[in-house]
Amino acid sequence: MSLIGQKCPEITGLQMLKGESPVVPSPSNVTVVEVWASWCGPCRSVFPHLSQIYDKNKSKGLVVVGVTQEPFAPKLMSFVSMQPMSYPVACDGGSQVQNKLMRPGGARGIPTAFLVDKNGIIRWQGHPADPKFESTISQLMAEAPSQQNEETKTDKTAEKVDVSKIEPLDHDEEVLKSSSIKQLKREMLRLGLKNDHFVEKSEFVAAILNHSSS
Hints:
The protein is an alpha/beta fold. The protein contains 8 helices and 6 strands.
């Protein structure tokens, strides 16, 4: 059983142990969802390799998030802070990675990585130490998103949401930072701002603040 060739479902509810919560899958960006656990030796051995790939490609739009099924706890956050993990790391608080990716994909062991292309299609899944993992990332990074995907994603969002009914957010910086990415995206839609290439929450916040101050 495999999810390769299927549309990647939206993953929400991540409880961040490190970094800001990314949009998964990230529109027009290559997205890596890597499942790990603190007790897993093979998982720990992959951290440096995955960090190296992330650091090399993040400026080009690569999105990586490491997700564990372990419950959110200070001890786990402390563990993550001491590991060579330069990418965002989270707990699967709502079990969405487990229920939408791991189980449907027939993945029984960890670490397991899912690679999603710029059009939101799962193109590869397997062990991140597999040489095909990095070579597939390079291949997907070189591909351009489909023209149809680029032209219609904003229109589709507008069709689903009546902009006049969106409740405005207070443009106080702390309020925006405490808002979910979904709320920030809706606020940007209300303001008529594009967010196609935004990944980090800070990018959404900065765009809204810049708009309100202009």
